[in-house]
Specification:
The protein has helices at residues 25-33, 55-59, 78-88, 93-106, 122-135, 152-163, 178-184, 202-205, 209-214, 221-233, 239-246; strands at residues 14-18, 44-45, 48-49, 62-65, 140-144, 170-174, 187-192, 195-200. 42% of the residues lie in helices and 14% in strands. A hairpin with a 2-residue loop joins strand 2 (44-45) and strand 3 (48-49). The protein has 247 residues and is α/β, with parallel strands linked by helices.
Length: 247
């Protein structure tokens, strides 16, 4: 159950949503999208009651990428997958074609337009899922556990590509990975017991280890090293960059 949530997303925000299992992370996003409807109270997205909005209308603002690509991919081809969302939003055919081409180029998979999405590798499926959101021109990209099942180097490469991708006003990702939040986010939201327990810069939110323990979030060795070297670096960095300061 969620209680009294209220936060704004600003242009340029890269937001990590942290919290233990059952804290309300994914539930919050699904309410914003209208995939879930509140049994009490209201959920407002840009001032509109989610009960009066369709999922398609909400998708103009928020594009949601599921943790597992197989939960959202179904088209017979990547081309069909990318056209589905814009068609349901009423885009004109020339705009659908232009958006689809721009989206697939943004994730560097234009050679797979004729391929069945579910025949691609897991990483490629993730990229097609994001391209499907891009093709709808959603303003905010929301990803649920974007790096699940990937090793350190693969997930760093994946996140670097997302951060360099054009077309989104803001990016929000749900994660259990404290290091991912520390390295990529400029803002961290912590969910605890269905409430928003913290909202601020990573250095502020992740710097309170007593609060992290209360929220059942464990500080990592990389987080601790980042905090130790912060006076020298001025920002949180990935392990290979910190090695330059700690050698």
């Amino acid at each position: 159950m969620l209680h009294g949530l209220n936060f704004e997303v600003h242009t340029g925000d890269v937001i990590a949503v942290l919290g233990h299992n059952g804290s309300g992370k994914t539930t919050t996003v699904k309410h914003a999208l209208g995939l879930l409807k509140p049994t009490q109270g209201q959920v407002l997205l840009e001032g509109q009651d989610s009960k009066k909005q369709s999922v398609a209308e909400a998708a103009k603002t928020i594009g949601y990428v599921f943790q597992s690509p197989s939960q959202m991919l179904f088209g017979r081809s990547v081309r069909e997958e990318l056209a589905f969302g814009p068609e349901n939003l009423g885009f004109a055919k020339p705009d659908i074609e232009a958006n689809s081409l721009w989206a697939i180029r943004s994730v560097h998979l234009e050679e797979e337009m004729a391929s069945p999405p579910l025949a691609l590798s897991f990483g490629q499926q993730k990229r097609v899922s994001i391209a499907a959101i891009l093709s709808m021109r959603s303003r905010i990209l929301v990803m649920d556990e974007p790096t699940a099942g990937q090793d350190y180097w693969n997930y760093m490469s994946f996140m670097d590509a997302i951060m360099g991708m054009p077309g989104f006003d803001a990016i929000l990702f749900i994660t259990h990975d404290v290091d991912l939040a520390a390295i990529y986010a400029n803002r961290v939201l912590v969910m605890h017991g269905g409430r928003l327990a913290a909202d601020g810069p990573p250095q502020e939110v992740l710097g309170d280890h007593e609060a992290l323990r209360k929220w059942r979030i464990l500080p990592t060795s990389l987080l601790k090293l980042n905090q130790q070297l912060y006076p020298l670096t001025g920002h949180y960095a990935r392990a290979e960059h910190l090695a330059l300061y700690s050698s």
